[in-house]
Amino acid sequence: MSGTNHRKDQGWQGPTPAFILVNPQMGENIGGAARAMWNFGLDRMRLIAPRDGWPNPAAVAMASGAGRVLDGVQVVETTGAALKDLNYVFATTARNRDLTKPVMTPERAMAHARELTANGQKVGVMFGPERAGLQNADVVQADALISIPVNPAFASLNLAQSVLLVAYEWRRLGDDTPPEVLALGKARFASNIERQKLNDRLEARLEDAGFFWPEEKRESMVENLRNLFARMPLTDADIRLLHGVVKALGRKRP
User: What is the chain's percent helix, strand, coil content, to nearest 5?
Assistant: First the structure.
């Protein structure tokens, strides 16, 4: 790879895809793309003939916190040079192309990329310049297309946004973060005996207040109340609060 003041190509160093920016126009967009990549653990950026040359101070400023991506950037003059060591390449596009190629969503593309890299293949993703996107001359060199399902009435995404969407899918498909968790803070889930004591106290208070009427419906009313609390993920703090509520309702106002 050619260029100055950046790390020379040291060969492929791990099972992550290279993100290839074709003729990027603004340093700020290169820096924004670097931030988007590093947000999701990707640091292999390649630039093809950046309009304003390289290095670019505006890219460095915008990449704040993601400098390692720019430190390792590889700069070449042609698409062929950027792709020569890759086994499989995706091209992002917002336009229909009169080409016979697989067209994938970002999710499917990155799932396929993970399959390929797991088998030792080197994968790249091409992103076109801000103004017009990839040219057909670039797209024909790709194995598959990535089409982001955006609003057809406003399909314009800037470079960093496109990079972020694809990088997010790469990260998400390899991440084991559960889709939902309950943050308990300093609390813990209430035990069965704590819940039972609350039920007993509440039922006694409601009995005194004449709530269970008519008598023949008492059993079903008690069951419904117990089922109501059983459906709730109550914490020990919730139990203490509800005990306080029951106690307050039992007081007579002065």
Answer: 45, 10, 45
